[in-house]
Amino acid sequence: MTTPIGGAAQVGRRRLVASIGALAGAAALSGCTRGSGGPDGPGSGPDPTADAEGAAAAAERQGAATRSFHGPRQSGVDDLPQAFLTMVAFDLAAGADTETVRRLMTVWTDDINRLMSGRGALTDQEPELATRPASLTVTVGWGPGAFAAAGADAPPWLAPLPPFTIDQLEERWNGGDLVLQVCSDSPVTVAHAVRKLVTGAEPMATQRWVQRGFREPLMDAGKERMRNLLGQLDGTVNPSSSVAEDEPLIWDDGSTWRANATALVVRRIAMELDRWDRADRFSREHALGRRLDNGAPLTGGDEMTPPDLAATAADGFPVIDTFSHMRRAMPTAPHERFLRRPYNYDDEPAPGQDSNSGLIFLAYCADPVRQFIPVQERLAEADLLNLYTTPIGSAVFAILPGCADGEILGGDLLT
């Protein structure tokens, strides 16, 4: 049973608005939409003579593109990845209970719907910053703490990942009661949305950690995948929900927990770029098991060509090393696959360091215990790429099913 945004839940929302003295201005802000009088000025819209494809491309360039908030599944999982990402994990306030979580979900549902459609949040005093959503998506997940506070049954797989021998986890990048994944093709839009959602959560929840990432825009739409900061094509042979046999790898069909839900595994992976710089191209490709220029297996073909794992070189050793990243990451069973949606990060280095860079590795799957952990165990056991990468952060969240108009995210868990 979902909870409508009316009635008792709406009263809580109004009290929140009243408490910061913004109820009078909120009604005006709620009507702000994109239009001819917006910040782009007259004549900034698409050429009316352009065909539909040209108009859509123009909308993308101008930041007018939107993605749907309402629906059986949340956006931001298997749709086209945007160029900019901010992940924010939250801790619930001490003593949080079902009503706390309900109120927070009511606030976020309303504000996310507004922001994704190009309107300011309810108490937004800078609604102009919301008028260029640039394909904004905000995806909400719950950690174990949110389920405990709400008194709801968590998915059977929802727990921290087991320790792996390669991990050097830092507490500042681990865990969280809730998470927001905010993505857009505009960094300004991301920054504005994050601020509105973070301040809207107070005092019910406070930030635990923030991770910001980036990738080349409009990649993964065709044949080319994004590149990480090692220069590697990242996301090759990704499952797709448009393929019938792949869909249950990404989305729960209701047999594990809830239909149209998914798991999110967040791994922050530091890259030793200085060490990578000292490796020649042969050593790099040997560690990856793939060519750097086109992502093809070292046994030939193109990026999507299946590798020939039996091929040997003149010296009798395998062409694709037994401990190469590709070989260790390959599934040993059909279910050992998951959707990868990675983003690069490049933060301020510590004193004495040249870089502080790596990958925010986001993996979506129906059951991480069955799908993700076996692969990670093989990589931890023996992967040549471990010479250049180190996991320093880890968290697991349940991405809630979507909601219809008039419902709130997670409403059926808050009865």
Summarize the structure in words.
The chain has 415 residues and is α+β, with helices and mostly antiparallel strands. The chain contains 12 helices and 11 strands. It has helices at 7-19, 23-29, 52-62, 98-116, 144-150, 187-201, 247-250, 273-278, 281-288, 325-329, 368-371, 373-381; strands at residues 84-92, 137-142, 178-184, 205-214, 226-227, 233-234, 262-271, 339-340, 343-347, 356-365, 389-399. Helix 1 (7-19) packs across helix 4 and helix 4 packs antiparallel against helix 6. The longest helix has 19 residues, at 98-116. The chain is globular and about 65 Å long. The N and C termini lie close together (7 Å). 42% of the residues are buried. Residues 1-50 have low confidence and may be disordered.
Short description:
This protein is of the alpha+beta class and 415 residues long.
Q: What amount of the residues lies in strands?
A: 15-25%
Shape: globular
Note poorly predicted spans: 1-50
Radius of gyration: 22 Å
User: Which structural class do you get from the secondary structure elements?
Assistant: alpha+beta
Described by strand count, sense and barrel closure, the largest sheet is: 9 strands, antiparallel
Helix percentage range: 25-40%
How far is it from the N-terminal to the C-terminal residue, by CA? 7 Å
Number of strands: 11
Average of pLDDT: 88
Number of helices: 12
> What is the H/E order?
HHHEHEHEHEEEHEHHHEEEHHE
